[in-house]
Amino acid sequence: MFVRTRRRCAAALLLVLGASLALSACGSSSDEGSDGGDHLVIGISNPQGAQPILKITQDAFTAAAAKDGMTVKALDAQLDPAKQVTDIDQLVAQHVDAIIVYPLDANSLRPALDRAQKAGIKLIGWAAVPTPNGDLGVYDANVDTGGSYRGARLLSDFVKERLDGKGNVLGVGLGIPVPTLEAMLKSYQSDVTEGSDITWSGRADNPTDDIAGAQKVVATALTRFTNDIQAIMAYNDSSAIGAAVAAKSAGVTSMVIVGQNGDQDGVDAVKDGRISATINLVPWRTGLILETLTKAVLAGEKGVPAYVESPSELVTQETAADYLGWSDAVSQIKAGTLSCASGGGCPDGVMALDK
Length: 355
Hints:
seven-stranded mixed beta sheet, 11 helices, 19% strand
């Protein structure tokens, strides 16, 4: 788990309890952000609100923010980089105090982020910086979801063990070059081939981020490789499930198929044997970490971690019984019984801020 720290100073801001919560897929019911007083308004630029892991992260952030008296304005880019640029500009126009950003296309989004920074808005990266030692750029802090490095290593070790160190592996990525997902696929390739006789056969890209999209491209890839693939490593659970459907249709049995996210569909697929393992990225924990860092950055606290990797967990048939449902966790956050400081499993450097 990575935690990198840099010091920042700013005028302390008072967090006022009792603020109303505003959240929808298209934004809040109010068009006005902070009025220069002590009430804090936080924008979220969600790249794909329909994706369960991203929705739960947003829901957890919003629940924690409500407990701290902050209002949230969330916008859904719907997997459209151009819309995400418009969303950032909309949040700037609404004078929010900070924006949580999961970038779809870092290059095309940069001018909009520069405009936000010039407007005095704090920028918190949500899987925005692909490497632990990467330049934060315009971001004041960044939270990695735990899949690019820790999750990739856990799955690679699992695949190597299941294949007894030999065989051909196919990767499944997203059709849009999201930086953290590209880092994940690179980690898959390097980690699974390291110290083994495993061959990385290449990758297929899911154009629609769903089961059907993965099923189609994996079916094509299996035909291209004449079904000589022993394992598939997908960037998310939907793609892993789609790959399993394609493999079954092709008559391929005993294939090792893994994914990431750890949503209920993914865990159910592990339990019933459709896929072999998944990484639970624990998005509710990511939401807690993002909220804690945002609060600390806006309060001008010293020693705020600049880069935090949210701890992820390997889920197999042997460990699936220990899984905490994401919606259950969000309910606990809303009730005030789960937080970074109390049962959330956040890194020490983050828990120290959640007082």
